[in-house]
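Appendix C reproduces, verbatim, an entry submitted by the partner laboratory led by Prof. M.T., so that reviewers can inspect both the input and the predicted structure.
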Amino acid sequence: MSAPLPQKTRHLLKLYEDDLAFRYERKTGAAYLGRAQSFLDWLGARGVELSAVRTEDVHAYQSALYARRKKSGRPYSAGDQKNRVKAIKSFFRFLYRRGCLLHDPAAPLDYPRVERRLPRTILTPDEVRRILKAVDLKTPTGLRDRAIIETFYGTGIRSGELARLTPDEVDTEECVLRVVQGKGRRDRNVPLTRAAAEAIEAYLVSGRGKLVRGSRQRFLFLANRGGYMDQATLNRTARHWARKARVKKHVTCHAFRHSVATHLLKGRADIRYIQALLGHASLATTERYTQVEISDLKEVIRRAHPRGR
């Protein structure tokens, strides 16, 4: 069990928490704060005060991260290690800029190399059509689910962004929705496909009013009892209709985001437009969709190789 943090350290951590709340959405801020807390606990167990931290101490913590093992004996991923290093650098950068430290001991810290992988699940256009066709439109929840899936596939927005949408942020006539405070606290306008706009309109007219419980329900998409639809609920919805459509892949909300990006690229859409649609801060994040899929490569070999036919 870790020792309690000194009062001054707790105060600085609270200032950092306030800064995170201003710059990030709640979930992201909580993750940064938790990782900073873990680092401070590690320092406390070694008798090192925050004001006395040296670069050597930060490097020692990074080495300890590399040596950590799960209960199964396997190491933690490079992505997890990178996120923890990122949080430490963020914490010390905040303290240095606020004048709480004379130097930033984490500045020389390097991020571990993380292999950029292709998304695990990419749906084909036919699989998306089958999932949409499987949805029962005779019930309020069916109208809602059809609108949710059409919106995911039509816009590529994140599940948290969709969950926080309000009716005022969707214009079905102009076919556009407004993402407010998306990832990185960035706002953006996203075009709706005609199919998504029509599905949302049908849900608003014939479905949402039957799910409302009380007068304080401000979100566009409501759970079965009128509450907030969190990410777990949205993923269960996607999996349910994928099973109904007999799609064998592991379908999540994010699978539709990956799929629309891939389908737009195959349709020769400019990658910078796709970056704007998905709300990526860096083009490098969008560029992972440009990697050649093995199915495409097999087709090229079949058509073009002398021995491929």
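Residues 26-45 form the longest helix (20 residues). Additional entries are available on request from the coordinating office.
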